Amino acid sequence: MTATTVSTQATEDKSSSGAAQTRAPAGPRTVLTTSMTYALLALIAIIYIFPFLIQIATSFKTDNDAAANPVSLIPANWTTATYQTLFGGGLAFPTWAMNSVIVTVFVTIGRVLFCSMAGYALARLRFRGRGLLFAALIAVMAVPAVVLLIPKFLVVNTLGIYDSYAGMIVPLLVDAAGVFIMKNFFESIPMSVEEAAHIDGAGIFRTFWSVVLPMSRPALITLVILAFQGSWNELSHFVVSAQDPDLYTLTKGVATLAAGGQGQAQQFPLKLGAAALMTIPVAVMFFIFQRQIMNTAEGAEKG
Amino acid sequence: MSSRRSRDAGGIRGREAAAGWLFTAPALVILGLFLALPILMAAWVSVSDWRGQGSPFSSSVGFVGADNYRGILSAESGLPARDFGTALRNNFWYVVLVVPLQTILSLFLAVLVNRKVLRGRGFFRTAFYFPSVTSSVAIVIVFLFLFSGSGAVNKSLSWLGVNGPNWFADPRGVAHVVLGVFGIDGAPALLSDNGFLSLSWWEWLAGPSVAMSALIMLAVFTTSGTFMLLFIAALQNVSGEVQEAALLDGASGWQRFRFVTLPLLRPTLFTVLTLGLIGTWQVFDQIFVGTQGGPAKTTITPAYLSYTSSFLNNRWGQGAAIAFILFAIIVVLTLIQRWVLRERGVPKRKRYVPDAAVVGTTR
């Protein structure tokens, strides 16, 4: 891009490698370009953020108010009816939330453990068939998830775990992409540390558990983020692995909520409130690990 | 190579081999059981007459050859074939519009946000990326409200004097609407009498329905952030010196972008297009939550049709067959795209590598 610069701003973003840039004095033309860029960015940012603001505002409106004033960010008369219905009314919202938490916790722990173990074996341990396993992993990653919807149901049903937590959790416990990420990471850390551990007499499992894993914090955090986000937002697998309303997760429960009363403005505050609540955990996660998340995608691309 | 070494080294290598299998066992069992085995089972179901009762392997289930495939592909079989043709048509337009739009928008956002001297870079990045982390269910609900008949979008359009459609209830094809403006309301006989996969060419040319257009905007809105991050990463690898050299050669801003930056972004562009192509042929959540295939079946997609055929209509064989055809479509299109965008004269090792983390984040 054009190397427009006001020198006081040059140090603002340390992560960028701006050192090699040419510093041109700011002329009237660059000032104009810069302000136009800001205006454009601000406009796009509003388009991206506004839907979420409307969502939150509408969840505090009455049904009629939501239908009459769909754009206003301030409810005509504030009401918490939405949240009272969600937590106290006939809806099983708390059950859905609990199921989501159960599934997410198990899936996240499982993925961190199993993906890092498999990744370590594929990166470091030499055994016959390793190359074949890795090739199979890549092949499995290439199969689109949606194609597996019905096939997955067939297996879950045959194994007798349809309509159970096991059926919802076990198939998600390993993620081929996660194994791939961990393998790449383990390959990037120097071998010398493990060799030192071996000389000290540590076995393979011990080396992995007390030497390698503690060194792998960044990759493990990446894995936790992906597993958490993936399982919290998962819908299609739960659609095919259970039908018992007691086993509804937030995604499935709120989806059924959305499907009722389609087409009209009916109960939009309720639906939007439910959707807002289910977004909170991923949003919190996002803001805590923001830097990490941004680097996840960037690192992957460079890798 | 591993086998030779293991013979040379004896004991330690033996333990390593045992540990290797032990470490990979959980992943192997789960991926095998829930990814590899299902494919084999579904392959059988797609050539059987199983109706969802009991085990698909019981003796009462018969082999029907290619009947299920014929049922959804040949025009004589009526409704299932028509539904499948419609689903392909709908998804085709979805792909044709979403993939270029999300690629261009995410590249555009990345270039804007990547300016070295931009104040509030972090804020803008966060704003553009946030829709990507929220669940598809939540986003669809927000869009159902924004695009409802008296919703925020139509309200905003009315300020501009435009009378917005009732988005999610409008089955009219966008191309037909545009042609209607020019007074072309019916199909020329050539287009209405001939067709492909049980749909006339006139129906194929309808374009996405108004309802589908709203889903297209939703897709672009939610995916552009993820792909923007990929482009930002790539842009930061474009060295300042190359830019500077071009600047000294008198290249304009656009020329520098077109002839210096863009060629260097090629691998990333390839990743984004591939992921986009694979992802857009798999639309399911949005349909399941938002439209259930309506209005007038203009938002059914192969993935959703495969689900409804099996779970709601008990045509499991056809559902599985649709899944396999969808798989074939995705594989073939990815190969075609790889071939079209192949990098001539670039060493093999520098070419595209599967992008695991990204595959994970865009699901």
Characterise the protein shown here.
- The complex is a heterodimer of chains A (303) and B (363).
- Chain A has 303 residues and is an all-alpha fold.
- Chain A has a domain of 168 residues: Orthogonal Bundle (MetI-like fold).
- Chain A contains 15 helices and no strands.
- Chain A is globular.
- Chain B is mostly helical.
- Chain B has 2 domains: 67 residues, no CATH class; 256 residues, MetI-like (MetI-like fold, Orthogonal Bundle), CATH 1.10.3720.
- Chain B has a two-stranded antiparallel sheet with strand order 1-2.
- In chain B, a hairpin with a 2-residue loop joins strand 1 and strand 2.
- The longest helix of chain B is centred in the first third of the chain and has 35 residues.
- Chain B starts with a helix and ends with a helix.
- The N terminus and C terminus of chain B are likely disordered.
- Chains A and B meet through helix 1, helix 2, helix 4, helix 5 and helix 6 of A and helix 1, helix 2, helix 4, helix 5 and helix 6 of B.
Q: What average pLDDT do the residues of chain A reach?
A: 82
Low-pLDDT residue intervals, each spanning 5 or more residues of chain A: 1-23, 298-303
Structural class of chain A: mainly alpha
Secondary structure class of chain B reads mainly alpha
By DSSP, the count of extended strands of chain B is 2
String of helices and strands of chain A: HHHHHHHHHHHHHHH
- The topology string of helices and strands of chain B comes to HHHHHHHHHEEHHHHHHHHH
Shape call of chain B: globular
Measured between the Cα atoms of the first and last residue of chain A, the distance is: 25 Å
Q: How far apart, in Å, are the first and last alpha carbons of chain B?
A: 36 Å
Helix content of chain A: 55-70%
CATH superfamily of the domain at 92-259 in chain A: MetI-like
Q: What oligomerization state is this entry in?
A: heterodimer
Major β-sheet of chain B, in short? Answer: 2 strands, antiparallel
**In CATH, what is the class of the domain at 92-259 in chain A?**
Mainly Alpha
